[in-house]
Every structure is written in structure tokens, then in C-alpha cells.
Amino acid sequence: MNAVRVHECGGPEVLRFEELPTPAPGAAEALVRLEAIGVNFVDIYQCQGIYKMPLPFTAGSEAAGVVESVGREVADVKPGDRVAYTGVLGAYATHAVVPAARLVKLPGVDTKTAAAAMLQGITAHYLTHSTYPLGPADTALLHAAAGGVGLLLTQMAKMRGAKLIGTVSTEAKAALARGAGADHVILYEQQDFEAETKRITGGRGVQVVYDSVGKTTFDKSMNCLAPRGYLVAFGQSSGVVPPVDIQVLNQKGSLFLTRPTSRDYMLTREEYAKRAGDVLGWITAGRLKVRVDRTFPLAQAAEAHKALASRGTAGKVLLIP
Fold this sequence. Notes:
single chain; alpha/beta; Quinone Oxidoreductase, Chain A, domain 1; Rossmann fold; 7-stranded mixed β-sheet; 27% strand; globular
């Protein structure tokens, strides 16, 4: 098998395309031949060492493919099943051994779409349904509204009846955000998103800000919140947010600040399966659209990281073995 390995922390240059022995699954595992692999900002953070990982490691934690073999204790999947998963390291490869409890069968979704939807779809699901459960009385501000999570989160916010204000960098991305259902779109390179958000809300502010950008947006995001509003900081594509004086939260309106991560919203097999089932079910029913921005061969994982880090993508980036 081939895999993209990381032996030292750094930029895209640390991704090495290597040949390895094909592993055998353990008793509760399955060997999956991967057909599509999701590329996510968490992969970049792990390679850079922002998220500490034991070295060396095979990058990636989201993929879809076909089961080749299973361990003796596995009953829920069998060879030939089309499956997807997220939350298991080692996805930048032609094959991966995955705990069977992490595999979700794909009766009505192709593997490319599933690989594009699992992590970002589950992220959008917990952000809109659990971290801050949106409802018809809510207005949300979403940064990077034309990104992979952004387009999915926008659609889910509209499913839940909320109003959504999205920020994007270009007119082309604005069109994508509006197509996903955004009620208002702010081009942040031309407009001050704080001033525009206050104008749109009549000075009241929003109930929640979903911020995956981090360093460059954090302070103004907080200023956009109504009293008792939630700042949900779920990424840092512009850099790490500096330390925060918690007194600011009461000064600006008894605000809430959270930094969620997907593992804490998939604590049990049941919770994981419910979120994945909702996402894949909505796709199958035509209620949720997934946009793949571009694909790269597995050996070009470094180029995929450069594309994602440039923040020039609109939708999902995939690797294809």
C-alpha cells in the first residue's frame, strides 16, 4: 500500500508519499480500500504541530471506500460493503485499518460524496444542533460561508429556520453562499463585517457567531453578539487566537465562548451514527448539497494542503488514491 507520512512538523513539504506493508485488521477492525479521502484544516494543524501528534504518523482522518477484510469479531460490515468514516488517523493512504464501530455503510451515497461530507457534515450538524441549537428566533453570523463547513452549515441553519449572515472574500463565493440559503452575504474585503452585521440586525447583534477563521476575526466576532450570545470558535485558518481575558465576556454582554472539537460530539457509537445518518440521509434525500471544489491524486497531498491553506477553495478538497 501507499501512504502519506509525516516524520517532522512543518508545512506541506513534510508530507511524504511512501510505500508500506498492507496491514491486517484486528479482531474488531476492518481493512478498507480507500477511494476518496477528505482534506481538512485539522490535517494541516496536525502537520504543523499545532495539534501534537506522535511522530511519524499517516495523515488524514476521513475517507470512504470498500471493505476488503474484517476481523473475527466484526458483524456489522463485510467485504464488499461501501463505507465511510471520520475520526480515525491514517486516511491519507490507499488502505486503512479502521475500527468497525467507526464505519458507516453507504447505501445511497457515492464514496466521493461521502468522503466530502463526513467530517464537515458532522461538524456542521453538531454546531447547529448541539453547540448552539439554532431555531427560528435566531440570527447567526458565519465566517467562511463558502467553505466546506460553511456551505453545509448554511443549509442546516435554514433547515432549522434560522436567519444566516455569511462572510466571504469574493463575489463568486458570495453567489455560492446565497445558493446555499444565506439571507445576507458580507464581502469582508470590501465591507467591515462588524458594522454590516450591526446594520443588518438593527444594532441588536446576532445570537451566535460560528468562527473558523480565528485570529483576524475573533475580536470583531465578539462585538457582533447580542447579550448572552455565543461565540463558537471552531477553527483558526488565519492563526491562533491570543489568550482572552474572561472579564471581556461580561463587559460585552454576559457572552459565552466555546472551542468545540468533533470528538466530544461523537462520544458514543450511537451519537456518531445519528449525526452521520442525518447528514448522509439528507444528502440521499436531496435536502443537503455537497460541493467538491477540487481533487488531487494522493501523491499530491502537499498541493492539496497548499490549496486549502490559501483559503481560496469553495467547498471540499479531496485526495483520490
